[in-house]
Write a structure and sequence with these properties.
5 strands; 9 helices; five-stranded parallel sheet; single chain; about 50% helix; alpha/beta; globular
Length: about 200
């Protein structure tokens, strides 16, 4: 199996090599072929709070993400490289598709109220009411998550503090309605040195 740590080091200077480094995905597919089973689809989520564009992208590469689904209503950031255009261009260099799904973002009035009252229950209820009206966007997202490795992107590092938690749960419900299953995996961004150490532990 490819030395993923070495791959990550090389990818810093050769971003286009990103599409060839998805080792864990291919390992799962090989295991599935050997056991004649179909691997269960997985939907990932991630928040870029406190992280750089580089760390975000290399975490996505480490987990073999194919498509990054940005569900911020306004895909803008004061941090360099994390706004829509810059992030999309950088992701493409590493072989990761970028899509912005505005319909699944948190409406401005709901975001504003949370900043004022810090009421998590009111935030949940407000966002779920909004999400209930986004059937088309959710059906498309769920179908995509069932056929390729996708990751939902928003700001908060803790998924439970972010609306992406509810989007992911809704995707699971839609998958169940279609007679299949979808696993949710909430990621945290890792630095490249941490990924290298984890890879080295896995090597024989």
């Amino acid at each position: 199996m490819r030395d993923h740590a070495s791959f990550l080091r090389r990818s810093l200077s050769h971003p286009d090599s990103g599409t060839s480094g998805r080792t864990s995905y291919h390992k799962k597919m090989l295991q599935a072929e050997q056991t004649k089973t179909i691997p269960q689809p997985e939907l990932y989520t991630i928040g870029y709070e406190g992280a750089s564009q580089e760390a975000l992208l290399h975490t996505l590469i480490y987990y073999d993400i194919v498509t990054l689904l940005d569900i911020r209503e306004l895909p803008q950031s004061r941090k360099p490289g994390l706004s829509k255009t810059a992030l999309g261009l950088a992701a493409a260099q590493y072989g990761i598709r970028y899509q912005h799904i505005r319909a699944l973002g948190t409406p401005r009035d709901i975001r504003y109220r949370r900043k004022i009252d810090h009421d998590a229950d009111a935030f949940r209820d407000g966002y779920l009411a909004h999400l209930a009206l986004q059937d088309e966007a959710m059906e498309t997202l769920a179908a995509q998550a069932l056929t390729e490795k996708c990751c939902l992107l928003c700001y908060e590092a803790d998924a439970q503090e972010c609306h992406r938690w509810f989007v992911a749960e809704r995707a699971v419900e839609i998958a169940e309605q279609r007679g299949t299953s979808l696993s949710i995996i909430h990621l945290r961004i890792m630095e490249i040195s941490e990924m290298q150490k984890l890879q080295e532990k896995d090597m024989p």
